[in-house]
Amino acid sequence: MLVDSVPEQRAETVPAPPTRRAVRSLGLLGAVAVLAVVAVASIAVGAKELSVAQVWHGLFADSGTYADVVVDERLSRTVLGLLVGAALGLSGAVLQALTRNPLADPGLLGINAGASAAVVTAITFLGVTSLTGYVWFAFLGAAAVGALVWFLGGSRGATPVRLALAGTAISAALYGYLQAVMIMDEAALARMRFWTVGSLSSATDGTIRQVLPFLVAGTALALALARPLNAVEMGDDTAKALGANLNRTRALAMLAATVLCGAATAACGPIVFVGLMVPHIVRSFTGPDLRWIMPYAAILSPVLLLGSDVIGRVVARPSEVQVGIITAIIGGPVFIFLVRRRRTAQL
Q1: CA 51 → CA 45, 70, 117, 198, 288, distances in Å?
Q2: Any residues with CB less than 8 A from the CB of 200 and at least 6 apart, and which?
């Protein structure tokens, strides 16, 4: 009896090690806290220097110069950055699972190219000059290319390789068209130069209202597909053995990625590296389970996007560097470093 009592006492005094699920949950809360800090910085910091008191007055005053800067410009910009960042992160996670390629991003399936080509067409041939007009053409272009990639990739018989090849071919053709039109039309080139590099500077309440329904619908669909996409990542035979409907899952995943990336690209232009880098990094500490990758990507992608936007507003005061340029400058070297790490590359 005396011998048996010792292990029982030790079991009561030594705490059990935290489970991986608990660690992931705590990490998710930490990511939310970081996002909150970056969002506050996005509102408080800008190309125009304002004190804390001026920012506070601008947020809660009915009108005035500070309210115009803080609410009409920075707050709208921050909200759009949150939405677009989450959409890019989720679409990247979905496409990496769909194509079973950890280096996949929304550009792989031609979605960015479709949106860009549609905007150039609208400006050059239809005389569209407002951002509200760009949004709808960009979204329609992304949706059309998404459907075309799905058709050329084999439709019901689509495979990851076929989808990637179809998307690459269509992207090359559309970017050739894009460059040809912009070279021949100087007006289109002038209007497109900020949009094509990716920017949050034109954010307005109207833009947010236009893209919000698509982003909400795409987010809900992507999160609902986490479990079946887990099965798809294991291979076709394993997915079928687990009872997954491959054709339906792939079609819905294409739809979710197209809606998310199409709406994000329509609002801000093609922003690179966010949808590629963040889900890839997240996978290294969450594992391959999309039920964890997607929430992390939806939170950490806006951190990268808004953080890059704040840097772009500060480094070139009183002007600014577009966020798409900053994400490329930051994302390129960091991503190369991460890919070269054996542990990250194997996951």
Answers
A1: 9, 11, 42, 28, 44
A2: 77, 80, 81, 84, 268, 305, 309, 323
Rounded-to-integer distance, Cα 146 and Cα 16, Å:
49
Three-state secondary-structure class, residue 36: helix
Q: Which residue has the higher pLDDT, 58 or 252?
A: 252
Q: Are 120 and 178 in contact (CB under 8 A)?
A: yes
The alpha carbons of the chain give a radius of gyration, in whole angstroms, of: 22
Kindly report whether the peptide bond that precedes residue 160 is cis, defined as omega within 30 degrees of 0.
no
**How many residues in total does the chain contain?**
347
Does the pLDDT at position 17 exceed 70?
no
Of 132, 106, 311, 276, the C-alpha closest to 204 is 132
For residue 24, give every residue at least 6 positions away whose Cβ sits within 8 Å of its Cβ, in sequence order, or none: 286, 292
- CA separation for the pair 81, 299 (Å, rounded): 11
At residue 165, what is the residue type? L
What was the pLDDT predicted at 2? 43
- CA distances to 138, 301, 308, 328 from 336, rounded to whole Å, are 30, 18, 18, 12
Q: Name the residue among 81, 277, 42 with its Cα closest to residue 198.
A: 81
HSE (side-chain half, CA atoms, 13 Å) at 53: 0
User: H helices of 111-159, where?
Assistant: 111-126, 131-152
Pairwise CA distance, residues 296 & 35, whole Å = 11
Chain CA centroid to CA 279, Å: 9
State which H helix or E strand residue 14 sits in.
none
**Model confidence over 284-333: pLDDT tens digits?**
888 889 999 999 999 999 999 999 999 998 888 778 888 989 998 988 78
